[in-house]
Amino acid sequence: MRATLAHTADLPPDISETVRKALREDVGTGDVTAALIPADLAAMATVLAREPAVLCGAAWFEHVFSELDPHIKITWQVADGAEVTSNQPICTLAGQARALLTGERTALNFLQTLSGTATRARRYAGAVLGTKARILDTRKTIPGLRSAQKYAVRCGGCYNHRMGLFDGVLIKENHILAAGSIAAAITWVRQANPGLPIELEVETLDELEETLRCGADIILLDNFSMQSIREAVRRTSGRAKLEVSGGVSLEQLREIAQTGVDYISVGALTKHVTAVDLSMRFALTSP
């Protein structure tokens, strides 16, 4: 399991592929409405935030328009990770009117969804300020937008858990059942993947003790009560990293963080996203 917080320069490598898929979904064989507009008509547009938010998704927004017309010029007033207020201008665009209108919805879809993710992450990160706990995302992401949403989580100040099933070991109840025991599962994984840290999910304090004896690197406390979390921290005493998961609400975060756990994983960061309200205003610049 990796807990990573990247700067905004650390963009995922699949932006172009993701944008092209989104444009194929929306534009298909061509924008039949935009064909009504003269090909040489130029326009300007301004994107406004309609509510307070944390901006995220500039690179996806730019890629949409560069795919449609590489001559479109975009000037940003704020960068990814910045907080914006209601009615604040975010960026301006200038170029061919057809391309601006064709790309509007796809570009705003990326910007509003990723800004919604970053905004939620910022609230969760703020709830544990002053503690050692880090808020982690999960694999509960919008299909096709995992790397984008995980980038947005980082922009909001939270951290990434594993990207997928390929880059981190997380042993759960059914894995243990298939392996025969906690010890057998950990032994097999260490032999098969010697370079990866091992995380194992436990549901009781007895399972915690067994997992500590077997030498797991990270122990996931699944749906533990506050009393049990505190007892787990006491028993572990730094021998492994502790992560709390399972229906964690924003209101519970600080109390959990103050127990001394290392991580709190929250699926709501990426699955309960409310898109930020944005608008794009157009103005013609040539007859």
List the helices and strands and how they pair.
Layout: H1 15-27, E1 42-49, E2 53-54, H2 58-68, E3 73-76, E4 83-84, E5 89-96, H3 97-127, E6 134-136, H4 146-155, E7 169-171, H5 173-179, H6 182-192, E8 198-202, H7 205-214, E9 218-222, H8 226-236, E10 241-245, H9 253-257, E11 263-265, H10 268-271, E12 278-284
Parallel strand pairs: 6-11, 7-8, 8-9, 9-10, 10-11
Antiparallel strand pairs: 1-5, 1-12, 2-4, 3-5
Helix pairs in contact: 1-2, 1-3, 2-3, 3-4, 5-6, 6-7, 7-8
| Terminus-to-terminus distance | 57 Å
Number of separate helices: 10
Low-confidence stretches: 5-9
Helix/strand structural class: alpha/beta
> How large a portion of the residues is in β-strands, by DSSP E?
15-25%
What letter string, H or E per element, gives the SSE order?
Answer: HEEHEEEHEHEHHEHEHEHEHE
On the 0-100 scale, what is the average pLDDT? 94
Explain this structure to me?
- The longest helix is centred in the middle third of the chain and has 31 residues, at 97-127.
- The protein has 10 helices and 12 strands.
- Helix 5 (173-179) crosses helix 6 and helix 7 runs parallel beside helix 8 (226-236).
- Helix 7 links the parallel strand 8 and strand 9.
- It has 287 residues and is an alpha/beta fold.
Tags for this model:
12 strands; alpha/beta; single chain; four-stranded antiparallel sheet; 10 helices
How would you concisely characterize the structure shown here?
With 287 residues, this protein is an alpha/beta fold. 39% of the residues lie in helices and 19% in strands. It has helices spanning 15-27, 58-68, 97-127, 146-155, 173-179, 182-192, 205-214, 226-236, 253-257, 268-271; strands spanning 42-49, 53-54, 73-76, 83-84, 89-96, 134-136, 169-171, 198-202, 218-222, 241-245, 263-265, 278-284.
